[in-house]
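Forwarding the complex inputs:
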Amino acid sequence: MSWAWANRALLAQYTGSHLYLALMPILFGIIVAVPVGVLCVRFRWTWPPILSLTSIFYAMPSLALYLVLIDYTGLTDWTVIIPLTLFSLSVLIPNVVDGLRSVPQPVRQAATAMGFGTLRQIVQVELPLAVPIIIAGLRVATVSSISLVSVGQLIGIGGLGYFFTDGVQRDFPTEIYAALILIVILAFLADGLLVLMRRWLTPWERARGTRRALSATLRGSRAEGAT
Amino acid sequence: MITFESVTKHYPGGTVAVDALDLEIPDGQTMVLVGPSGCGKTTTLRMINRLIEPSEGRILLDGRDISQTEASELRRGIGYVIQQTGLFPHRTIVDNIATVPLLKGWPKAKARDRARELMDLVGLDPAMARRYPYQLSGGQQQRVGVARALAADPPVLLMDEPFSAVDPIVRATLQDELIRLQAELHKTVVLVTHDVEEAIKVGDQVAVFYPHGKIAQIDTPQHLLGAPADDYVENFLGFDRGIRRLAFFPAAGLDLQTGIVLSDGSTVEQGRRAAKQAGESWVLATEAGRLPRGWAALADLESRDGHETLAQVPLAPYGHTFRVGQDSLRAALDATVLSRTGLAVGVDDQGRVVGVTSYERLRAAIQAAEEAADGQGARPS
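Prediction (whole assembly, two chains):
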């Protein structure tokens, strides 16, 4: 504890870079996943190849990708951000697709029959209704991303992962524990914020009880243990 | 006016949903499309707002080919109600109803004011405005669906099995509401149902579909019941169409018997005389204000002292009454069938006795009504 307090400036600096490295991929991921997901639902034939692609992203060892990317992006943040973005896409795209498909057919048909244009219907009807499932995916992607950043330390860009390698080299477990606890706290906080965001974005779900929201979460999560 | 000009819809694989359909739906009327599932009635409906495009032929709305109007533009001018309501779960009731006005670019406040007006029109409590659809019962949701379809005051309203998902009591209420609304609004309503009772109840015109996309008969409900075009239509209408048809003849056409209606202060002797004069074996005793009290049997009156009053005689219950001004011959017949005496009591709006009917009098009224109906049988078709 005293070590952490004495090194709080350093910890804060690495925490900042850790968050940056973890959250930029999520931001890029969601920006790409929403239009791609919409595309997959609109044009059904695009979904099988895109699903295969996301599975490849999911299975790809990130370390191998770092080493390949060094040739192109050098030892910059991008070398970590790009693989993590691909990883986040592997979670987010299927969730956007699931979310859009969860919109009941009569609702979609009624929207069309009311005279919504295609884009307006997606933005005003389908995406809002997909929010619970999309956010369930965001939670998995965010928590995974926060934990995966530390792997980047193997090429020297790993946020709080710095303290892992440093702690091993100096045989000083305290800093390993401190960084570990910080990472877990960051994951919890990010997850909590996303839960709040879902509540704020989906007021109609609130009074309906937890059952539906819970089932949406279960559908959306692959390996979620944070809640 | 909606006009189908030899409209055909076939799907790849050769299924013909609608086969060379010609149909005219006049303004301000309720046209019901009825038939078994798979008969093309829903396809026909959905071609009107271009949810389905015809393979051949064209559809005109007030003389204009609908394929020439941009689809979403066309749809904003046509209300649409479906069985599963299709309400937007993420929007409050008031915003659901305001959907089309908002799409048409009305200011938000004006659209919401209009939505509240419609809640009133369809009989929804204003307190529900800020709730979400799932907080409402099935019947209430369907009212919201109707209000949403009417919000931008479209001249045409399409309803696809709108009341099939609610229980029978709520369904009957919603059907009555539709009839009331339609009497007020005079929309051109096209309603699809598989329920022939519903078709007969709410339709001004009913189009009965054969199973494969052709129309067997288009007629008013009354003529449909009176003169089905063929065996298919007759079977489809069900076995008691003769009695159901009586619902279209007002009970006011009955020549009611008043001679055997006596106040309960009358004597037994007066009762005997009235019954014999009318050739009936019962007299109806009424109490103050001409309210019905019960039946006295002639056989019983014969065995009593002629100076007693009817109030002192044991009376049989008068049973179900019918309202002369509002009910149909069907209600009068029903009351007669249910009556122990074979006579039924017709009352006015205040429940005062107007007169009594018998099977003979019903028969005469039915005959007269049928002759009158056949007289106007040469309708344009």
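The radius of gyration of chain B is 26 Å.
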